[in-house]
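step=encode ok
step=design start
structure_in=
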């Protein structure tokens, strides 16, 4: 029932847990398959029920002898979905770095993937974006694994109910002020209820098409400087940039993706600079230029380094030395 079970058996795993249907089903399936793991849960402090969910997580940890990490998050007042996601993934990243977890496990299922696909389709997207989530994604310091991506939520509910396992229903999942909930209840769920087997098959075809359409790009990194040789397809390069930025916990917008297709130099979210040159694509953090000497500016000019990249290179002598050799 779990995807990539063999990968999880001999590695260290951190499960993103919420006590809801999806993550609770995944937790008990991991136990059933003798896969070792610890869990991490975030309390955003918005619902009284969240305290019960945390207590349940801690009870399970004590009963089944795994660690339970808790983050009591600061209050989020704007753009809750995006900021909550950033908060929890920063928490997971900290745990992964401190305790050396190799895999982060999330309980995304085919309903989540289908919702994402519909949302991307309505914003404007190609096959790579529509394919969306993958069962395995390599991030900078860990592997993201979604062992339930082939299953639908009702299958998870059936498993929990058949085994009389407790779980919580988050009442905010019914609030259609959140775009994902609007798509879930009005479009994705009715279609999944009626056409589940066909939707599963379509995702299989999409995954095959992406492998054929998107050239594989290997991104190398020196400190916070990333680079790669451009492929024969700008489309593939943008896909690689998107994937890299996701590993840095930044999801590019449709407008940013369009700019990357059309422009040589793009500042993304005021966090990253992407310079797409004929020989290489460079990605650095976006910094304000301060204190650069004339000698340094002249060196950058001779190397033909895009001005928006220079502030980062000014602070990273190792990256400058590497780029100097790379561009000679």
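sequence_out=
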């Amino acid at each position: 029932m779990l995807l990539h079970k063999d990968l999880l058996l001999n590695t260290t795993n951190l499960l993103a847990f919420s006590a809801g249907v999806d993550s609770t089903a995944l937790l008990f399936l991991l136990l059933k398959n003798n896969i070792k793991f610890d869990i991490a849960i975030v309390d955003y402090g918005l619902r009284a029920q969240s305290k019960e969910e945390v207590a349940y997580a801690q009870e399970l940890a004590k009963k089944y002898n795994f660690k339970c990490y808790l983050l009591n998050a600061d209050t989020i007042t704007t753009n809750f979905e995006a900021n909550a996601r950033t908060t929890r993934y920063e928490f997971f990243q900290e745990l992964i770095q401190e305790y050396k977890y190799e895999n982060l496990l999330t309980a995304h299922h085919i309903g989540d993937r289908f919702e994402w696909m519909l949302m991307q389709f309505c914003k404007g997207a190609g096959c790579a974006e529509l394919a969306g989530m993958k069962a395995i994604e390599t991030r900078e310091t860990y592997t993201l694994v979604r062992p339930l991506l082939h299953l639908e939520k009702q299958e998870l509910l059936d498993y929990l109910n058949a085994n009389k396992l407790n779980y919580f229903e988050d009442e905010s999942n019914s609030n259609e002020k959140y775009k994902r909930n609007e798509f879930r209840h009005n479009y994705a769920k009715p279609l999944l209820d009626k056409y589940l087997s066909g939707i599963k098959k379509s995702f299989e075809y999409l995954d095959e098409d992406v492998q054929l359409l998107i050239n594989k790009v290997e991104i190398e990194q020196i400190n916070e400087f990333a680079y790669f040789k451009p492929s024969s397809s700008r489309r593939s390069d943008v896909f690689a940039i998107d994937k890299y930025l996701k590993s840095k916990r930044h999801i590019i917008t449709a407008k940013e993706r369009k700019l990357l297709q059309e422009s040589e130099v793009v500042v993304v979210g005021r966090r990253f600079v992407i310079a797409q040159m004929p020989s290489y694509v460079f990605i650095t953090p976006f910094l304000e230029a301060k204190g650069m000497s004339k000698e340094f500016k002249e060196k950058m000019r001779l190397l033909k380094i895009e001005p928006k990249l220079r502030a980062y290179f000014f602070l990273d002598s190792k990256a400058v030395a590497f780029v100097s050799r790379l561009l000679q």
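step=design ok
step=annotate ok -> Residues 220-326 form one domain.
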